[in-house]
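Hi V.,

You were right to ask for the full record rather than a summary. Here it is.
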Amino acid sequence: MNASGLEEVRAFMREMEAQPLHVTHVTQLALQLFDGLVALHGLGEWERGLLETAGYLHDIGHQFDHLDTGHHRESARMIREHPWKNFPALDANLAAQVARYHRKSPPKMKHEEFAVLSPTDRVLVQKLAGLLRIADSLDRSHEQHISRVTIEVLPDKLVFHLEANGPVLLEVITAQLKGDLAREVFQRELVFMLGEQVIKR
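Predicted structure:
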């Protein structure tokens, strides 16, 4: 994503987001996950920009919580419907779908907007949403307890090495639950470590 596109995304986030510190931190964690898994997911800078967009905007739908439609769906709608100047409609739609799947059900073919994507774009959405679900989980408390994450890729597992400045059990429990999509896409179990200790629920 070019600088003008990224600034437009950030401006939209600042306008709509009630907890900018949380979503900015989630975005940073998501990009750390993306960068740590390049050899596995095989994606590039364009896809990284889609994840960055989805990270900044995944929670903007919270302002419609009173409608009980699910803030993830509202976030996706807002991303798609925003009058972007520096963000092509196709890119906006893909980022919207990544944001939509940051919580609740992973992508399914019964979801119309996901089903109409090309097979290649469906896999892309699954990969990026899998990363965003974990990143969002790693700030479940909204208190930025996990400052950084690096990943060790093994044949049968992904080992997430956490750097923390506070308790991480809630974050790890949530990441194990919302890691369902990443486990499916990357065909590996997820292990979370703090120093030499494996964190288990």
